[in-house]
Structures are given as structure tokens and as C-alpha cells.
Structures
1.
Amino acid sequence: MSKTLFRTRIKFCGMTRAGDVRLASELGVDAVGFVFAEGSPRRLQPEEARAMRNAMEPLVDAVALFKDNSADEVRAVVKQVRPSLLQFHGAEDDAFCKGFGVPYIKGIPMRGLDPTQRAQHAIQLLMKYPGASAFLFDGHAEGQPGGTGEVFDWSTVPTGLGKPFVLAGGLRPDNVFDAVISTLPWGVDVASGIESAPGIKDGDKMRRFVEEVRRADCHPD
Ligand SMILES: O=C(O)c1ccccc1NCC(=O)[C@H](O)[C@H](O)COP(=O)(O)O
């Protein structure tokens, strides 16, 4: 694969502390994610996310993440937090995902897929989620929660999507360079790989993660 000229976007997911959000902005991170999925150790109440959202610097996107939440819960978050993007990780269909007047990213479980089915997988995704602004390829298995640090086989990333994709799943400062060079994603997303405990981001890991993505962006291949 030949290298393109764009800058790889970075999203830090599962933010729970205002100081972590501020440091992410200072590091030049493009988006931060607030998790509303039931059972997640990073789960926020809308009021908590709203407080962090109101303190955010301009030109940084807030992404609200759901997994099989009710429409009322999604609406409450949209009203209070004003995210610029929604991200769905459950069995929500396209009609549900696009029903809130906010662009959406669809999280796709990638565990155990067949590398020979990359093109077919892309077609299936485009047919199933025509309204998605982007896909986020994640390391977990179908029905499982994300944010668990599981890497999937990058050779299964669908080809010929014609839409941006975000690579996720077990990315860390020590593997994100290879991940970017191998898959040339529109963006990368990380939760546990920049944490000292679930929801508690580690400043040094955050900084090193961003440096490694930038190093990959400058790499000639
Ligand atoms: O982060 C969570 O707790 C979570 C819970 C339920 C569904 C999805 C969740 N996270 C999705 C993300 O976007 C994570 O950033 C992604 O799974 C990568 O996580 P990690 O492998 O820990 O970097």
C-alpha cells in the first residue's frame, strides 16, 4: 500500500476527567469520546459529560458512544452534551443510528474475520449502514463491549469502502506506528492503551501515543 499525504486523525476514547480532556486538546488530539454504554467502567452520566464538554477547547470534537442504549437515553445525551458525532457499538440499525440528527460512526467487531473476505465485508457494511459517516474497526467480538485492549488481525480490514475508517482495538504507544503504516486509516482510536486504570488516562502514554502517530505520518513508506 502506498502512503498518502493526510494526517492521521486521533481519537482518545473513554474520557472521565476534565484534566485528561484538556491534555488531549493540548496534544492536538482531534476527538475525545464519552462512553454511555451500560456496564462500561468508563460510563458517564450525561451531566458529567456535559461539564467536560462545556470546558472543551474549540476545534476538538466530542463523540458520544453507545451500545444498545434506548432512544431516550441517546436523545438525552444529544440534548445535554451536544456531541458532534455519535458512535454505536451494539445491534443498532442504520435507521436508529441516523435518527438523532447527528452524524454517526458505526463500530464493527473484527475478531475472527477471514482476510480473504475483505472486499465482501466492505460491501456488506455499506449496504447495512448507508448513513454511516465512517466505520470504526474494533478488536472485540460480536456482542462484546469494546475498550478491552484486544488487537485484531489488521489484514482483515475491509477494502474498497470509499468511506473513512478508524482503526481501534488494542492500540498502544508501542504498536500504533505499525498499525498506521500497515492499514493507513483515516484515524486511530484508543481507550485502554493510554490508561493506568479504566477511565484514568496516563499523561505520558497519551503524549507517546500522539508522537508515534505523527512519526508514522512522517514515514516515507
Ligand atoms: O470503552 C468502553 O468501555 C466501551 C464499552 C462498550 C462499547 C464500546 C466501548 N469502547 C469503544 C471504543 O471506541 C474503544 O476506544 C475501542 O474499543 C478501543 O478500545 P481499546 O482496545 O481499549 O483501545
Note: The radius of gyration is 16 Å.
2.
Amino acid sequence: MLASSAIFRRQQFLIRSLGGHSSNIHRERMQAIKCVSGSALEADGQSILRAIVPTFDPFRYKGQAGKVAVIGGCREYTGAPYFAAISALKIGADLSHVFCTKDAAGVIKSYSPELIVHPVLEESYNIRDDEKSIISSKVLADVAKWMERFDCLVVGPGLGRDPFLLDCVSEIMKHARQLNIPIVVDGDGLFLVTNNLDLVSGYPLAVLTPNVNEYKRLVEKVLDCEINDQDAPEQLLSLARRVGGITILRKGKCDIISDGETVHVVSVFGSPRRCGGQGDILSGSVAIFSSWARQQNLATGDNLRGSPSNPMVVGSIAASTLLRKAASTAFGKKKRATLTTDIIECLGISLEEICPAS
Ligand SMILES: NC(=O)C1=CN([C@@H]2O[C@H](COP(=O)(O)OP(=O)(O)OC[C@H]3O[C@@H](n4cnc5c(N)ncnc54)[C@H](O)[C@@H]3O)[C@@H](O)[C@H]2O)[C@@H](O)CC1
Ligand SMILES: Nc1ncnc2c1ncn2[C@@H]1O[C@H](COP(=O)(O)OP(=O)(O)OP(=O)(O)O)[C@@H](O)[C@H]1O
Ligand SMILES: [Mg+2]
């Protein structure tokens, strides 16, 4: 009895958080979700994918299907920015850029000729103190001249935590925000943002994609408490509200997504392999899917029927759904040997099964 009343209260809470009682909007949102296991609400990721993935059109030109840029890649990490950038391309973006340090650029280029790689970021070890101000301005100028072309930035995969580099990235984020360019923040970008919440606070075009550690740091900083797994959706909703209604995708056994208005869960089974890099696929995927969701919103001036109204939430649900399906397919083929590159190879076929190309 106690357990069932707790579940009932949880359902009531989630229903309220999914848009309250207002008739049509509520009914439409409820079509996009269905109740699973009595205590969590599952997003209909496949319907969302079908609604936002653009059809092929002979009159479209290069760039219209999306241009994304990843800010990340340093001496230690070259895989993460590659995974994020190539995933956006494999899903259907037309162009994918990487802005990284000089040390990382040659390596990332060697992984793929498809990526456009800019060796513009600098780390402290490479520069003198008296050069910092001038180099910081140059880094911003080098990125800013490209900025207006991008539909979305992904800040953080493999960025590292060098203080000078992070200061430069803060300036890049402020500039992107001035231009209203969406920003997906992941990896070390979350380390930066957790210590400088003003960079994203109140920016509706920001998405944070924390893993378990990154989420713990965010919760401690913003809510000044521990992670509460019993009431995970409620805690995420509060967190998103406290950071001014930005979208947060909490990764884990289930991915939970909230923008402070609604809470959605994606729990379709993925892969039991926890190899590094799957979060990087996710961040690149959120970038392209949210760009497509925004395009839909702008084109129709309306929400997608039966979907959440926030394109950043829509893009997050789509990305989580596809990543988990691709991970499941890759695991089916490679079992214990499954690696992130195998999952990336399954993005195309997984999307094809949901939205055939013709
Ligand atoms: N091939 C690459 O270049 C990769 C680079 N990566 C980059 O590496 C940087 C640091 O990211 P991390 O994800 O390692 O940073 P985190 O701060 O999330 O993780 C730090 C450590 O915590 C451990 N950890 C993970 N899950 C845990 C759990 N549930 N409980 C307790 N400990 C746990 C991890 O093993 C890791 O050693 C980021 O820039 C990220 O983008 C990663 O994306 C992985 C792939
Ligand atoms: N315990 C789990 N069970 C099933 N799927 C999971 C689990 N943990 C994470 N995932 C899936 O893996 C994806 C990546 O999450 P993860 O926590 O590995 O990110 P990450 O640590 O940032 O990865 P990266 O190594 O790229 O930095 C999530 O979107 C989620 O769907
Ligand atoms: Mg990560």
C-alpha cells in the first residue's frame, strides 16, 4: 500500500511536470510518452526520430542538413572530439568541425579526412605568461570568424582542464551565446561550467550531458546536496530549474532529460559494455538532432505533434534513443569486444531501421 501510494505520488508529480492539466497540450505530450514499470515515464524516442530526421530533397544544398563544431581535443584526449564530430556526420550532418589544440589536430585529422580540424586552442605549457592576453584574443578571433556558420557547438569532449585553455573556451561560449548558437556541454566542458554556472544559466539553447561523476558535481554545486536516486526525476527537474531552465540529460542506466518544465526517460536497452567514448557519441548526436528539431520548429512555427515543445529536449531524447539502439546492435555483433568505433559504425543502420532513407 505504502509502495503503491509512493508510485502514485511519483506519477502525479511526473504528470504535473509534463505540462500540468491543460487539455490539448497535455494530451499531445502524453501521446509521446507511455508509462513503464509503474514509476517512470518513457519518451517515445522512435516517433520523435521519425518526426525530426529530414527527408532527402534534390533541391537542398550542402550545409542545410546541419553544421556542427566540437570544441575539444588536447594532448591527452584525441578520441573524444573525434567520436563526437564523426557521430554528427554519420547521423546526417553535412559538415563537422573540430577546434582543438595544435598537438591534437594532426592526430584527429589522421583519424578522418571528413572532419574539418582547426588547430587553434592553446594550453599553458606552450605559452609564456606575458603572451596570454594576446593569445587569448587570437584564439577567440580564430573561432569567432567561423561561429555564425554553426547550427550547434559541442563544448568539452576531450578538452582537458588547463586553466588558460578553459578561460579561452569561456570567451568562446559567451560569444556563441551572444549569437544565439545552441551549445551542448559535455566532459571537461561540464567541469568548466560547474565552476562558472553563469556561462549557461538561463540560456534556453544550452544542453548539459553529465555522466555520473559530472552530475554529482553539478548537484553538489547547484543544489548543495547529494544525489538522490530515489527521486531522480524530481531532483533533475529542480536542478534544471535552478540553472534557469536549461536542458540537462543525466546519463546512466536510464537517461533522464529535463528542462525544468518536463521530465523524460529513455530506458530502452543499450549495451552492457561501458567502454569510454559512448558519451561523446551522445553529445555529437544531441547537437545534430537538436539542430533538426529547431529547424522543424522554425519551419513550421509550431511544435512537433505529440512531442515536447523544447527542441533541445527533443534532440536529447532522439540522441539517447539512437545511441542506445546502436550500442545494442554493436554489442549483438561484437559482444565483449564492442568498442565505441563499433557503435559509431552502427549509427547509420540503426537510424535506417527507424527512418528509412527512401
Ligand atoms: N578516447 C578519448 O579521448 C576519451 C576521452 N574522454 C574525455 O576524458 C575527459 C575526462 O572524462 P571522464 O569521463 O574520464 O571524467 P570523469 O570525471 O567523469 O571520470 C573520472 C574517473 O571517474 C571514474 N568513474 C566513472 N564512472 C564512475 C562511477 N559510476 N563511479 C565512480 N567512478 C566512476 C572513471 O573511471 C574515471 O577514471 C573528458 O574530456 C572526456 O571527454 C572520455 O570521453 C572517454 C574517451
Ligand atoms: N549503467 C548503464 N546501463 C546502460 N546504459 C548506460 C549505463 N551508463 C551509461 N549508459 C549509456 O551510455 C551512454 C554514455 O554514458 P556514460 O555514462 O558512459 O557517459 P560518459 O562517461 O560521459 O562517456 P565518455 O566515456 O564518452 O566520456 C549514455 O547515454 C547511456 O545511454
Ligand atoms: Mg563523458
Note: The first helix runs from residue 2 to 17.
